[in-house]
Amino acid sequence: MSPYILRSFCCSLPGPAKDAWLKPPTGSLKFNIDGAVVEGFGKADIRRILRNEYNESLLTFSKYIGFTDATSAELLAFKEACVLFGESKWVESHSVIFESDCSLVFRWLTQPNLVSSIFKQIVLDCLDVCSNFRWSLNIVPRTANPIADKLAKTGTNRSFPWVWKA
């Protein structure tokens, strides 16, 4: 059996609720992830925000990753979120729901046999890191992830990483 559960909120939720952040169930945390790249291939930043069912930020992380493309930025955001959660104090007591607005990353993580060879190793690394805890992945519209989206876009002008912990 696979260690992860797959859901697609943007495809399954009716009406306007799909465009808003939804709290995770009790016993789960939600990691909203996003990558931003200036003009298709350029300065890039990745952001992750870990929140509980009360919408409290437990961990916010930003990292400038140099020059890259949007797909690489989204994959790196997911990989670093996996590592951060795997090393967190919550890994034993909570499952984690990763949310991204990148349908390609969602597809590759759910069907790794479809990954192009250039991204294959990073996808396999992500799945390996996540095999140590309970997780699920949702693809959500950007409007359901506005904080991560805004922070990622503003971070492309920063050249140093920062972590904020509650």
From TrEMBL:
It comes from Hibiscus sabdariffa (roselle). InterPro entries: RNase_H-like, RNase_H-like_dom_plant, RNaseH-like_sf, RNaseH_domain, RNaseH_sf. This is RNase H type-1 domain-containing protein. Gene3D superfamilies: Ribonuclease H-like superfamily/Ribonuclease H (3.30.420.10). It comes from the Eukaryota. Residues 32-154 form the RNase H type-1 domain.
